[in-house]
Every structure is written in structure tokens, then in C-alpha cells.
Amino acid sequence: MTAIGIIGSKGRMGQALVAAIAEAEHAHAGGADQGDDVAALVGASDVLVDFSSPKALQATLDACVAAGKPIVIGTTGLEDAHHAAIDAAATNIPVLQTGNTSLGVNMLAALVEQAAGRLGDDWDIEIVEMHHRHKVDAPSGTAKLLGEAAARGREIDLANNSESGRDGITGARKKGAIGFAALRGGSVAGDHTVILASDEERIELTHRAENRMIFARGAVKAAGWLAGQSAGRYGMDGVLGLQ
Ligand SMILES: NC(=O)C1=CN([C@@H]2O[C@H](COP(=O)(O)OP(=O)(O)OC[C@H]3O[C@@H](n4cnc5c(N)ncnc54)[C@H](OP(=O)(O)O)[C@@H]3O)[C@@H](O)[C@H]2O)C=CC1
Ligand SMILES: O=C(O)C1=N[C@H](C(=O)O)C[C@H](O)C1
């Protein structure tokens, strides 16, 4: 049994995590939200799970490093500086960061990597995502994860080969670009489609999340797995046996 502390415990994912921790028969060490003492929660936990806000990340990482506690980071909307902070923390503690903790999305990423690599850049790649009206970041962390998978398959760098937020006279699509489009509305838990389009045919690979328990169960599984790892930065492949 692992004592799991939740950063962002009162949120939509925080509540799903409480249920998933009970279901997996781990212990819920408590939660921290805005204004709470994160160091106290870290001290009471074997491992932390963070589904909150990028603004919380640095203080959370500092507390985990100071106490030598592993952390699973599911928060999205991360920028380069956040990833640099994660890399630095991972030299001291185990850190697992992912835009999506579900089995289905991580399987989809493996399929996208393979398709992008085998089809080549005569096939345009567009990633379309839809989420509930409350989501604050775009494109989603999952869309970025799928974009990274496509870029890996093509052996290109995503940062220099992506197009998003098209509006007005944009010019023609750049050959080899990976495009992103974000839709928001209703209560959608998370839909992602990767479209591979050639001149004469099109492939669409889709994942639809029907509820948040798929993310929560994946995060709890990741927490149990991470508690047994040494310092370093990890993704979901080892947790889900997709390596
Ligand atoms: N990787 C994955 O598989 C998934 C990732 N996510 C990501 O998880 C994050 C949370 O999503 P969701 O639960 O829907 O969001 P919510 O807005 O419902 O919950 C966010 C929670 O984080 C808390 N919070 C905000 N700022 C801080 C802070 N500075 N310190 C501590 N706690 C803070 C909020 O507390 P308060 O209300 O007091 O501000 C709230 O309880 C998002 O980034 C989302 O994209 C979501 C699903 C799956
Ligand atoms: O905010 C959400 O809800 C979700 N966020 C993650 C993301 O940004 O990809 C994962 C999931 O799609 C739900």
C-alpha cells in the first residue's frame, strides 16, 4: 500500500483520484490546493500526484526534492521553463510527467508514431482535440504528446514543425508541418483525432475518453510504479508495459 498525496485535490481530477486511490486499495495521504502547505502534504505522502496548475509546479517540485519524494505530474499547459524545472528535479527524485495517463491514449501514441514514420511527409498530419468548456490550456497536453509521437516517427523536431491557431490569410500549409486545432464545449472529457491526409486518401485515428476515471486509474498505477524507481524522468510506457 502506497500513501498518495494529491496536488489539486478539490478539482475534477482530484476528486476522481480520491476514488481511484480507494479502488486500488492505496492510502489517501491528503490533498493540497491553492494556499495550502504543500510541504506538509509531501511529508505525509510516499508519492505525490499533481493535477493542478502550472503555477503550482515549482513550489511542488522544490518540496518533493527537499523531502526526496517521487511525483507524478499530470498537469498540462507546461512551457519550456516547466520542463527545465522537471529535468532539474529528476536528477534528485523520480518524476513521471505525461499529458495523458490513460492506456488508450498511450497506445494511440504508439500507433501514430508508427504511421507517421511509415507514411512519410507526403501525408499531412493534423491533430484535432475537443474538451469541456472549463479547460484553460490549448492545445491539450495529449495533443502535444501525440504531436511529439508523430514527430518522433518522422524523425523531426516538433517545435520547429508545428502549426496552430490558423486564422485569416495564413498562406498554404507548410509541407511536413504537424497541425493542431482545439475545440471547447460542453462536458467532453477528452476527444483526440490524428488525421493523416494524402492527396487521395485519409486515415483518422481517434481516442475518446468517456470519463475521468481512465486518467485517475492510470495516474494511481503510475504512482505505485514510480515509488519503486530511482531518480530520473519517466513517461507512461514503463507503467503500461508499452515499451
Ligand atoms: N495528464 C492527464 O492524463 C490529465 C491531465 N489533466 C490536467 O490536470 C489539470 C487539472 O485538471 P482539472 O482537475 O480538470 O482542473 P480543476 O480546475 O478542476 O482543478 C484544479 C485544482 O488545482 C488546484 N490549484 C490551482 N492552482 C493551484 C496552486 N497554485 N497550488 C495548488 N493547487 C492549485 C485548484 O484549486 P483552487 O480551486 O483552490 O484554485 C483545483 O482544486 C489540468 O492541467 C488538466 O489539463 C486532466 C485530466 C487528465
Ligand atoms: O483538462 C482536461 O480535462 C484534460 N486534460 C489533459 C490534456 O490536456 O490533454 C488530458 C485529458 O484530455 C483531459
UniProtKB/TrEMBL annotation:
Subcellular location(s) of the protein: Cytoplasm
Residue ranges of every copy of the Dihydrodipicolinate reductase C-terminal domain listed in the record: 104-240
Any Pfam family hit: DapB_C
Biological or metabolic pathway of the protein: Amino-acid biosynthesis; L-lysine biosynthesis via DAP pathway; (S)-tetrahydrodipicolinate from L-aspartate: step 4/4
Catalytic activity, reaction form: (S)-2,3,4,5-tetrahydrodipicolinate + NADP(+) + H2O = (2S,4S)-4-hydroxy-2,3,4,5-tetrahydrodipicolinate + NADPH + H(+); (S)-2,3,4,5-tetrahydrodipicolinate + NAD(+) + H2O = (2S,4S)-4-hydroxy-2,3,4,5-tetrahydrodipicolinate + NADH + H(+)
InterPro entries for the chain: DapB_C, DapB_N, DapB_N_CS, DHDPR_bac, NAD(P)-bd_dom_sf
Signal peptide start and end residues: none
Domain called Dihydrodipicolinate reductase N-terminal: residue spans: 3-100
Keywords: Amino-acid biosynthesis, Cytoplasm, Diaminopimelate biosynthesis, Lysine biosynthesis, NAD, NADP, Oxidoreductase
Residues binding NAD(+): 8-13, 74-76, 98-101
Root EC class: oxidoreductase
GO molecular function, one term: 4-hydroxy-tetrahydrodipicolinate reductase
SUPFAM superfamilies: Glyceraldehyde-3-phosphate dehydrogenase-like, C-terminal domain, NAD(P)-binding Rossmann-fold domains
Active site: 131 (proton donor/acceptor), 135 (proton donor)
Binding site for (S)-2,3,4,5-tetrahydrodipicolinate: 132, 141-142
EC number(s) given by UniProt: 1.17.1.8
KW Cell membrane (keyword) present: no
PROSITE patterns found in the cross-reference section: DAPB (PS01298)
Quaternary assembly: Homotetramer.
Similarity field: Belongs to the DapB family.
Job of this protein: Catalyzes the conversion of 4-hydroxy-tetrahydrodipicolinate (HTPA) to tetrahydrodipicolinate.
PANTHER family: 4-HYDROXY-TETRAHYDRODIPICOLINATE REDUCTASE 1, CHLOROPLASTIC-RELATED, DIHYDRODIPICOLINATE REDUCTASE
Protein name in the entry: 4-hydroxy-tetrahydrodipicolinate reductase
Species: Parasphingorhabdus flavimaris
